[in-house]
Specification:
Layout: H1 3-28, H2 30-34, H3 48-68, H4 75-100, H5 105-129
Amino acid sequence: MNIKRYLIAVIVIFIAFQLMDMVIHGMLLMQTYESLPSLWRQDMMSMMWVMYLTGLAMSFLFVYIFTKGYENNGILEGLRFGLIIGLFMQIPAAFGQFVVYPIPFSLAIQWFIYGTIEFIIAGIITAAIYRPKV
């Protein structure tokens, strides 16, 4: 494993997920979230450190799993990896939330689609960073 590229990829992926989440949840889905005030914690913002910590852990694991199966097939490898991990993570997450919480099905669908796209982008970024020296 190339530790330097691994750590760079982890940092970049963490930042990319934070930025994509800001766009998705802070902009695209905000109106939907505001229409469901009874679902969200009143003190949610004071607990965001948990989200950052889990996001960092996910970034470490995402890149680690990529490096263990690394085939040096370029951006398409990253796209494939991101799609597989995205589906693996988002199918149970989005639709499991729909079963547990009284959210609209349309929100679950959006979480699934946006989340899968996030992982695809993360896979592409990881493949672009974690590549052999030219």
